[in-house]
Amino acid sequence: MFDIIKELFLLKKPLILKKKDEINLKGLEKKTKAELEKLGRKLGIELDKRLTKAKLIKQIKKATK
Question: What is the pTM of this model?
């Protein structure tokens, strides 16, 4: 019972990928803004969906360098 309460109130750390090879940067243009946002979260960065798709892709590429 207390585990459920702990999960609700404790912040979880974002999943950060250790290998940069796990991300395919070639197919980013085909992804939606929501998919790009999820990918950014996996990288440990927060993306703003109000930005253009090109700017989101630029931020993802910058984070993987």
Answer: 0.63
